[in-house]
């Protein structure tokens, strides 16, 4: 669907995890409440330096070829785990599943995978500087 829509990125996430992930985005300067579960703060979509940068991670992630190049995916030396749950699309993009089962942030292993993915891809959410 992402390719047919000519999207740069997208994600599908179970509602309960998606609520916490959405709460990572800081849309106002006066929003000082930290994101839940120790997740990183993400910039608002309008603060992104490029439309190719994914705004957030989810359980199933679609990254166009341009988005994947922007975030540095794949790097065979660092991405063995995500590549084991990824597939290439017809137009050179990627569909990357973070966990085998639907993302459940009450599961410490799932939360750890999400945190590791944010650490690996600091560009996601506009957290890195050019």
What structural keywords apply?
25% helix, two-stranded parallel ribbon, globular, single chain, four-stranded antiparallel β-sheet, alpha+beta, 130 residues, 4 helices
Architecture blueprint of SSEs:
Blueprint (H helix, E strand, L loop, with lengths): L8 E4 L2 H8 L2 E2 L15 E2 L16 E4 L1 H7 L8 H5 L1 E3 L5 E4 L10 H13 L10
Parallel strand pairs: 2-3
Antiparallel strand pairs: 1-4, 4-6, 5-6
Which strand-content bin applies to the residues?
5-15%
Q: How many helix segments? A: 4
- The rough form would be described as globular
Distance between the termini: 30 Å
Biggest sheet overview:
4 strands, antiparallel
Structural class estimated from helices and strands: alpha+beta
* Average of the residue pLDDT scores: 91
> How do the strands line up in the largest sheet?
1-4-6-5
Helix share bin:
25-40%
Total beta strand runs: 6
SSE arrangement, N to C: EHEEEHHEEH
Segments where pLDDT lies below 50 for 5+ residues? none
Query: What is the radius of gyration?
Result: 14 Å
3D architecture notes:
The strands form 2 sheets. This protein has a 4-stranded antiparallel sheet. The radius of gyration is 14 Å and the shape is globular. A hairpin with a 5-residue loop joins β5 and β6. Helices cover 25% and strands 15% of the residues. It starts with 8 loop residues before the first strand and ends in a 10-residue tail after the last helix. By secondary structure, the chain is of the alpha+beta class.
């Amino acid at each position: 669907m992402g390719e047919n829509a000519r999207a740069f990125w997208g994600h599908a996430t179970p509602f309960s995890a998606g609520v916490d992930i959405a709460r990572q985005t800081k849309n106002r300067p006066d929003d000082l409440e930290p994101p839940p579960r120790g997740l990183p703060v993400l910039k608002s979509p309008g603060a992104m330096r490029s439309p190719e940068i994914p705004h957030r991670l989810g359980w199933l992630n679609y990254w166009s070829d341009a988005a994947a190049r922007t975030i540095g995916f794949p790097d065979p030396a660092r991405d063995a785990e995500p590549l084991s749950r990824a597939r290439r699309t017809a137009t050179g993009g990627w569909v990357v599943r973070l966990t085998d089962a639907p993302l459940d942030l009450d599961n410490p292993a799932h939360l750890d995978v999400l945190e590791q993915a944010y650490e690996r891809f600091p560009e996601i959410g506009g957290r890195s500087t050019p």
